Structure formats: C-alpha cells, structure tokens
Amino acid sequence: MIIKSSEFIKSAYHKKDYPSHDFMEIAMVGRSNVGKSSFINKMCNRKSLARVSKEQGKTVSINFYEVNHQFCLVDLPGYGYAKVSQAEKASWGKMMETYLGQRENLGAVILLLDIRHKPTKDDMVMFEYILSNGYDPFVVLTKADKLKKYQIEESVARVKELLDLKEVFVFSSKDGTGRDEILDKIEGLLP
Fold it and tell me: Which band of pLDDT confidence, cut at 50, 70 and 90, is reported for residue 169?
C-alpha cells in the first residue's frame, strides 16, 4: 500500500464526539510511551501528523487520522502510566472501553509493545480484552532500532510464545523497519 494522503480529523473525549464517516477504523493501543504517535507518523510518512512527546501520558483523547480517504488510524490513550491520578486513569479506561466495545467502524486493533521489555500485566489484560471483543490479534513490537538482531529474534520468539501467535511485526519509527509489511497487513484488512 502506498500512502498518498493522511490528515488529522479530530480528537474525541466522548462517544458523541466520534467522527461520522463510513471508513473502517484501525485502533492502536499500548502502554504510555510505547510509540503510538511515532508509529502513526512513520506509517503515514509525516513528521508531525501525530504529536510525539518524550513525556508519558500525553495522549489524553482518542485521535482520528484519515488515511488515503480509505480508512482511519485511531490513537487511543496509553495505559499503565503511574504518575496519573486514579480518577484520570479511570476516565481514560472508560473512554477506551467505550470506543473498543461500541464503535461500529472499528475493524482491527493493533497492540503496540516495546520490543525491549517482556509484555506487562497491563499488556496481557489488553491482549485478552482485544480477543474478548472478537478482534484477531495484530501485534507490533516497537523500538526495534534499540536492539541488536539476536535480541530482536529473542524478543519476537518470547512474545509469540507468550501470546500464542504465529505472526508478530517488528517496527522502528526511526529507520522504517517493518513499515511495508505492516502496511500490507493493513491493506489486507480493508474491505
């Protein structure tokens, strides 16, 4: 798939704020600072389509990005960030649960995991939640440029075994590793 156009549509905090369109949506979930915004920027070949921050917990809304006038990438708030109040965590959780459980346009969920770390308890809960909502797991291991080749292979094997998956994608927003394979996977999901 060649990305010819991409644009930010809107941010939503409530169901009533979701955009009204017929595009299939592909949501991205993952821990805070796993690289969801960098993933969007690299996939769309744009440097600042999605705001990237070194600080965790910066995405506090659901952000919709239209791609090729064909589908939407949807960036959800990160989970697992410790320096946020319980009330704010609960609010983000409710926002994500409403979107993931009720959005009719949602066609796929990409779970982003940091390749440098073993999936956390929160990652495992999210993976099970994705499965329980009827979506096939689509797992992307981010930050591949931070490891040596043998470490990448070990991490991929560990995640495949832990999550009982045949396919896991390796990705780097820095050098574009995995971008073409992930775009091919996305293209295969589109109606």
Answer: very high
